[in-house]
Amino acid sequence: QVQLVESGGGLVQAGGSLRLSCAASGSIFGINAMGWYRQAPGKQRELVATITGGGTTNYVDSVEGRFTISRDSAKNMLYLQMNNLKPEDTAAYYCNAKKTTYVPFTLKDYWGRGTQVTVSS
Predict the structure, then answer these.
(1) Which whole-number Å values give the CA distances from 74 to 13, 28, 54, 71, 77, in the listed order?
(2) What is the CA radius of gyration of the chain?
(3) What is the pLDDT of residues 96-108, one digit of tens each?
């Protein structure tokens, strides 16, 4: 099992910055990708950013150029640097990890409980 705990959320004004952190623990070996999702009340959960073990990153168009996802494998930490925040970024942000196991092959998703980001206008 993998446990994920997010931190770093808070209330900021538009144009401000926050850095979200996700601490992974448990059976870490086999995680091959991690990402951040967000969900606002009444809206679907959306993928914000992903990073592979090799460092390849992807971002949803709405955050491209403003958010940066990074990973510190030695510390089992995932980060999301959020700059130039906008009110539409307001949501609960969730850390996600995809873990591959072999014999038998499985690809499982793990989720944190979320951290709230609120951006005021």
Answers:
(1) 33, 11, 14, 9, 8
(2) 14
(3) 999 988 888 988 9
